[in-house]
UniProtKB/TrEMBL annotation:
It comes from Enterobacter cloacae. Residues 259-281 are annotated as: Disordered. SUPFAM superfamilies: DNA-glycosylase. Signal peptide: none annotated. This is 8-oxoguanine DNA glycosylase. Residues 270-281 have a biased composition (Polar residues).
């Protein structure tokens, strides 16, 4: 038995077939139902449906590697995305990523000023710390040529810079090289992995980043999708559905994923032995 998802794009109907819910995608990890958020089958369906509907995603935030490092270093770690991007755009307008890197004091001065985001002005958190990290990174990029033959090579080089950990370095490498040999792991990806069963419960992003990354890369390969696509999709949906995620975490304590309530209705074709779920795009 297989399961089928139908994608409606205008007048066109495209059927997508997936392995049966009880089949394993990895040893001990079932595909689950395509409508059961956040099962492996759900993520596979969503990625393939988006491929049919939209163009390829451009992950880059900057025009140069200096700008990409700046954009990613100024974001994350408790900094709302809008504020991180606003800080990056402010520094870019000030010339922070030009040929001659500014001093740490100058970067701190710029980051300490109010930053406009939308209709309000805000203060950037960690201005002193981030100005120090950014100063070191920009000066390093000014005198060294980082390896760009693979995402992992660039990531490993970036982690030698103070203030850039595995997550930020992987984010930069994924964006700049469209790399699929690294993964951007945070609490949203970790929760998705715990709920779907492909991450063990005794590993943490802080202590076991590389172990979790290897599992994630094997998971995406078994699914037949790019790690960069899967990472971006999971992050977006998990952070946008926080209340649902927290409810699932509570409901999942001691229960298998198959007991999750599906998020859409299912229809079963008794003649073909295929269950079908339809989504409108």
């Amino acid at each position: 038995m297989t399961q089928r998802g139908a994608v409606f794009i205008g007048p066109t109907i495209i059927n997508l077939d997936f392995p049966a819910p009880e089949q394993d995608i990895l040893p001990g990890v079932r595909w689950g139902r395509i409508e059961a958020f956040p099962s492996p089958a759900y993520w596979a369906y969503q990625i393939l449906a988006r491929r049919l509907e939209v163009n390829a995603v451009n992950y880059k935030l900057g025009r140069t590697l200096k700008e990409e490092v700046g954009a990613c270093l100024l974001g994350g770690h408790g900094i709302p995305a809008a504020i991180g991007l606003a800080a990056f755009n402010k520094l870019k307008d000030c010339g922070a990523f030009d040929a001659q890197p500014p001093s740490e004091a100058t970067l701190y001065e710029w980051l300490s000023e109010p930053i406009k985001t939308g209709n309000k002005s805000v203060r950037y958190r960690f201005a002193r710390q981030k100005s120090r990290y950014l100063s070191v990174a920009l000066n390093r990029l000014d005198v060294e040529m980082p390896p760009t033959d693979s995402g992992r090579a660039l990531r490993d080089w970036l982690t030698s810079i103070p203030g850039i950990g595995h997550k930020t370095a992987s984010w930069i490498a994924r964006n700049w090289l469209c790399a699929d040999d690294v993964a951007i792991l945070d609490i949203h990806i970790l929760r998705a992995g715990l709920l779907a069963g492909f991450f063990p419960g005794d590993l943490t992003v802080e202590r076991d980043y590389l172990k979790l990354e290897q599992i994630f890369l094997e998971f995406s390969e078994a699914m037949g999708v790019k790690a960069s696509e899967l990472d971006a999709l999971i992050w977006y949906e998990m952070q946008a559905s926080s209340s649902t995620v927290f409810s699932l975490i509570e409901n999942m304590r001691g229960q298998p994923l198959a007991k999750l309530r599906p998020r859409s209705s299912r229809a079963k074709n008794r003649q073909s032995g295929t269950s079908q779920t339809t989504f409108q795009f």
